[in-house]
Design a protein that fits this description.
The protein is mainly α. The chain is 75% helix and 0% strand. Helix 2 (48-61) crosses helix 3 (65-85).
C-alpha cells in the first residue's frame, strides 16, 4: 500500500468521524430545543454576593437574570457531564447514554434517578 493511499484512507476516516460528530451534535441540539418548550420552575438560594455577580453580568450583557442563569446552568451542566465522563474509559458512550437518559426522563416526566433506580426483585 502506498503512502498516498494510507494518507487518503486516514483523511477519509477523519472526515467520516467529523461528519458523524456533527450529525450527533445536530441531533442533540434538536432534542434540546424540543425540551426547552416545556420549562419548569425551580428555586435556588443564592448568597447576596453571588446574586450581585449574576445581576452585574445581566446588566453588562443587557440580558435578563433568567437568560444569564439559563446560560450558566446549560453550559455548566454540559461541561460538568463531559468532565465527569473523563473518568470512564468509554467517555463518549457514557456521555451519550447520560444525555439519552436525561431526554427520556424529560419526555416521561420522571427524574433521572427514577429511570436509573431498578428495585431488586430478589426476596
Amino acid at each position: 500500500m502506498s503512502v498516498r493511499s494510507v494518507f487518503s484512507a486516514m483523511f477519509i476516516q477523519k472526515q467520516e468521524e467529523h461528519e458523524r460528530m456533527l450529525q450527533e451534535q445536530e441531533q442533540r441540539e434538536a432534542a434540546e430545543q424540543f425540551f426547552e418548550k416545556e420549562l419548569r420552575t425551580v428555586t435556588v438560594r443564592l448568597s447576596p454576593f453571588l446574586l450581585a455577580q449574576i445581576d452585574g453580568l445581566a446588566y453588562h450583557l443587557e440580558e435578563s437574570r433568567q437568560v444569564i442563569l439559563d446560560r450558566i446552568i446549560s453550559v455548566g451542566t454540559t461541561e460538568a457531564v463531559e468532565g465527569y465522563s473523563f473518568a470512564f474509559t468509554e467517555k463518549d458512550v457514557f456521555t451519550n447514554e447520560f444525555f439519552d437518559t436525561c431526554r427520556q426522563a424529560a419526555r416521561e416526566g420522571k427524574t433521572f434517578k427514577e429511570l436509573m433506580y431498578k428495585p431488586s426483585t430478589e426476596e
